[in-house]
Recover the amino acids of this structure.
């Protein structure tokens, strides 16, 4: 059995994927909780309840529902004229989540941009490639460049508006890192370092309703303070010990910035056993999910084999870390 603290989960689900066949597959894989993404055009209270009832009726836990087309909201991050209407949408959505008993919502701060500069292979499987020089050669997205101070000011204003609503309605806000974690195309990507996440938690006064969707792959991509990569396990100990990690994307890559490609969890540069151990040692009690599964050519026309492989890998690591901790406690 898996540890009651570390839970196997999946993300990136939509209402259309919540079929009986899909739910049965997830249960067969040992999945305990899932994340569902819905469009803002179908994000009312009744829509939320339908998703909740479908997931729970299938015997799975619902970790969160997020807005697929708004979670990285450019008008809010950039302080555009329509940002007020977007903030009102978030407030309404948070109230409806709380009313429906759904306790988590993801947001990001102008992530993306040149998400990938090409494709390559990892162990013969098609996967994402990012090369910094190619991304920085791309033209600016907007007719002006934005500063870090502007985006930080807008972030603080967003937290002042949204966090009290989340606290009043029992909803936790989890911030996803920028991916790729580097400024490009005229827009700062604020959440590209451990230091930036430390500042974000301070902006929110270390509220228990403000935390991190800890994407292991994104933290692995970061330059780090000396350019040699971020201390990913160290970041888990820092933020996890304060209860600020609400969900974990479990992904490995070939190397930190400037260039990397995505790998399976067992053939990248990170020691994923050490990452899982750090999560257990800080008492993390949320779900650990596959992220950006490399595409297998198994003849099925789907990524089912790759997803099953990674789910099994994560489940095995959870069991191994849990067993090690039980042995350590008994000795």
């Amino acid at each position: 059995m898996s540890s009651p603290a570390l839970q196997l989960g999946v993300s990136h689900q939509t209402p259309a994927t919540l079929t009986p066949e899909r739910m049965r597959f997830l249960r067969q894989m040992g999945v305990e909780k899932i994340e569902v993404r819905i469009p803002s055009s179908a994000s009312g209270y009744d829509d939320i309840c339908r998703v909740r009832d479908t997931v729970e009726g299938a015997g799975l836990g619902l970790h969160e529902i997020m807005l697929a087309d708004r979670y990285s909201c450019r008008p809010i991050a950039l302080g555009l004229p329509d940002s007020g209407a977007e903030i009102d949408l978030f407030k309404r959505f948070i109230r409806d989540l709380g009313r429906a008993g759904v306790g988590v919502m993801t947001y990001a701060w102008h992530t993306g941009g040149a998400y990938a500069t090409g494709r390559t292979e990892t162990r013969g499987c098609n996967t994402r490639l990012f090369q910094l020089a190619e991304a920085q050669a791309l033209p600016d997205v907007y007719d002006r460049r934005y500063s870090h101070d502007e985006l930080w000011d807008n972030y603080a204003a967003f937290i002042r508006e949204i966090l009290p609503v989340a606290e009043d309605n029992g909803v936790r806000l989890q911030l996803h890192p920028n991916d790729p974690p580097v400024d490009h195309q005229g827009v700062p990507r604020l959440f590209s370092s451990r230091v930036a996440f430390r500042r974000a938690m301070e902006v929110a006064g270390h509220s228990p309703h403000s935390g991190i969707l800890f994407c292991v792959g994104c933290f692995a991509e970061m330059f780090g303070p000396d350019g040699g990569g971020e201390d990913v396990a160290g970041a888990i100990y820092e933020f996890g010990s304060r209860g600020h990690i609400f969900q974990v994307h479990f992904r490995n890559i070939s190397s930190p910035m400037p260039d990397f490609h995505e790998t399976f969890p067992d053939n990248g540069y990170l020691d994923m056993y050490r990452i899982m151990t750090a999560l257990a040692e800080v008492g993390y009690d949320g779900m650990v999910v596959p992220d950006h599964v490399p595409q297998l050519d198994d003849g099925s026309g789907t990524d089912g084999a790759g997803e099953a492989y990674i789910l099994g890998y994560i489940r095995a690591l959870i069991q191994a870390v849990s067993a090690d901790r039980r042995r350590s406690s008994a000795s």
About this structure: The first helix runs from residue 20 to 28. Residues 32 and 60 are 6 Å apart (CA to CA). The mean pLDDT is 94. The chain is about 40% helix and 20% strand.
